[in-house]
Design goal:
Blueprint lengths: L23 E8 L8 H17 L10 H9 L3 E7 L1 H8 L4 E4 L4 E4 L3 E2 L5 H4 L23 E4 L7 H18 L2 H9 L5 E4 L2 H8 L5 E3 L11 E6 L5
Parallel strand pairs: 1-2, 6-7
Antiparallel strand pairs: 1-4, 1-5, 3-4, 6-9, 8-9
Helix pairs in contact: 1-5
Length: 236
Amino acid sequence: MNSDPSIDSPFRSEPGARDAAPQFVLPLVVRIERGAPPARTDALETSARAVLVILGDERSAGDGEWAQAMRDWQDARIRKVVRRARGAEWRRAEGLPGITVTGKSAEVRVFPPVPLDGWPRELAKLQVSGTDLDDPEPPVDADASAPVLWLNPELDMSAGKAMAQTGHAAQLAWWELSDEERAAWRDAGFPLSVRTAEPRRWRELTSAGLPLVRDAGFTEIAPGSCTVVADHPALR
């Protein structure tokens, strides 16, 4: 989708028409309790599902209460910021309008988009940097019959950065699906896996015409870096 530089992609590093629009950000908050952090891969998968859940929510469509904010956000740069919370911070975050998505060990709450400089007070004070997690055990092989979000093996991203990138990839896949394919994915509970590709497999994926995230380079990695490929069976 966004591998063609002539396309005004929401993830391109070069200035484009989207930069002239008011800028919004999609907040995601991951629950990281002291002594009981979620597994990294589960957090990445849960954040990607959280993005899909809010995209597919009836409040985000038509005349829904979040629809205008979602449209404004998608008309500009597609920014997602992941922050972390625990204890009372998490309880305060849960009190704001949004959706909590639960994985095997992870909890991620996604909120309707807010202006880039207009975060709610309860979220603005949450930490944004240094969010990193580990996998206690290596993830099992991905189910090839379900969507797989493949991470670039050559990039070293914090868990927070990678959560935002997998959310981008899930969103690109969502945009390319038909209404029927979206409904089927939603009705199934948005199954997906996140895995790091082997170098040779990564080269194949990036030339297969699948949705590819090229990061704008606001944090951590160089502008234009290819971060994630969304390998959805309906798009192969």
